[in-house]
Amino acid sequence: xxxxxxxxxxxxxxxxxxxxxxxxxxxxxxxxxLTFILANQQYGLEILKVIExxxxxxxxxxxxxxxxxxxxxxxxxxxxxxxxxxxRFGLEPTELTHETCIIVVQTNGLTMGIxxxxxxxVVDIEEASIEETPSFGSSISAEYIAAIxxxxxxxxxxxxxxxxxxxxxxxxxxxxxxxxxxxxxKCMVF
Length: 190
What we know:
It contains 7 helices and 11 strands. It is α+β, with helices and mostly antiparallel strands. It has one domain: CATH 2.40.50.180. The strands form 3 sheets. Strands 3-6-7-5-4 form a 5-stranded mixed β-sheet. Strands 2-1-8 form a 3-stranded antiparallel β-sheet, with no helix packed on it. A hairpin with a 2-residue loop joins β6 (about 100-105) and β7 (about 110-115). It is globular, with a radius of gyration of 23 Å. The termini are far apart. About 20% of the residues are buried.
């Protein structure tokens, strides 16, 4: 270090990071979403709910389960319930393709798989670009859509995966009735 360096005043870091008040208002925290396609529409799941993405595996049908529950799979020794989002959203069924996959998510305290047409990518959506679901009129239900994200010129539907995969049958029954039931037995009620 030379003598002239020692005579310079210390650098004030805050002077170098002068962000105006208007710039602070435009900076919005971002949330990461895994986007996927269903019937040519893009949807997004908050990445923190996603455990992994796997190719289609053989699904074992469980008797007396709702139509959107396709059954269970054996994922490395763990039995996972699998739901078909096309069916749950009231969309027309389609043939499975090489792009069809299962997104394994953590929801409602359970690990479940959801079948989607294809996984698209991971996107950052600014909180300021996420809006509440608008009203679609009295004849159209958007009960499973929590919000809508805007990314450049795209609109991404953001489902409430906890509501989508809600254990309706369990929730309608008294919690006392299921107090001593294992998680596996609760999954089989689907």
